[in-house]
Amino acid sequence: MLKPVVTFYERFLRRRIPSILMAYLTAVVPLTAILFFFFNQARILFRDLPSVSQRVSEVTNRWMFLLDQKFNLDPETSSDWVSENMMGVVDIPLELARESFESGTVVLANAVLIVLITYFMLLYRTSFKNYLLSQASPKNRKSLEKLFLKLQSLTKRYMIGQGIIILILGILIGSGLWLIGVPYAYFWGFLAGFLEIIPYLGTSVGGILPFVYMLMVSDSLWQPWAVIGLYILVQQIEGNLISPNVMGPSIKINPLFIILGLFLGGIMWGIAGMILALPVLAISKEVFRTFEVTEPFSYILEDGLSKKSDIFLEHYDHVKHRIMYLFFDERDD
């Protein structure tokens, strides 16, 4: 993903190692600004947690008082139940959040490892490319080089597209939350934008967090539900208008394989694996489409599979498109 940046610096510096270091510096500056924004907002949010817990107690007691009046419940019993159970429920997500921030050393160690791996991949990329080209016959090397360029373009488009989508979603959701009256509106908005990188799961979490927060701190019920309505509206706009125009059709993947990719990526590499699931699937689809034997499988990975159910028997019912041909000497009767 840093290769285009490294290539840009190589035009001026002429040497690979300084170009790689400059590429890292280019990536670190905006990343540091983003992390500073989130950690600063999170610090303020956690500083207010004691008052939030007190606020939850007040709001819950008020609602229990209304329920006592409506259903003729015993006020003393209801109050005891609230004090024994509700505050414990509130403390669970707060404790989980604190533990998540305490695991920052593990995240930092993984980040250092990723930096080292990408450094050597960028340093040796020409050797890797030439090795792969040597495995193809001379007549197929041009097609393989085209595949490399296509994958590079796909990765670049995905990275730029995700950046644009995060910016748009952060502004849209943050502005909407600000109008609703949600504290730390743009923190929640851009957090949802970044979580959108993880399909389905990240989107849901991005909406649930401010909803739960507003349930705890808001005097009225309309604000939490307005938050949910805002997220549903923005997700419809993002799914039907923003992503198709920003990302293009090459990133559209079958939802079944997205879910499987998230599951397997999460098992193998945790959050990083879930983030990489979609681009890896998109790259795999392009690789499969390049070779005759795997070309049909690229349509299995593509979105809208139910509308293309006849394509396999109509266009790919031939021995050269059968994966089993790699293992057995099949012949058409």
Map the helices and strands:
Blueprint: H1 3-13, H2 16-47, H3 49-71, H4 75-102, H5 104-123, H6 125-134, H7 141-180, H8 185-195, H9 201-217, H10 222-247, H11 255-290, H12 295-301, H13 311-315
Write a structural description.
It is a single chain. Helix 3 packs antiparallel against helix 4 (75-102), helix 7 (141-180) packs antiparallel against helix 10 (222-247) and helix 11 (255-290) packs antiparallel against helix 12. By secondary structure, this protein is mostly helical. The protein contains 13 helices and no strands. The chain starts with a helix and ends in an 18-residue tail after the last helix. The chain has helices at residues 3-13, 16-47, 49-71, 75-102, 104-123, 125-134, 141-180, 185-195, 201-217, 222-247, 255-290, 295-301, 311-315. It is found in: Cell membrane. It is a multi-pass membrane protein. This is Putative PurR-regulated permease PerM.
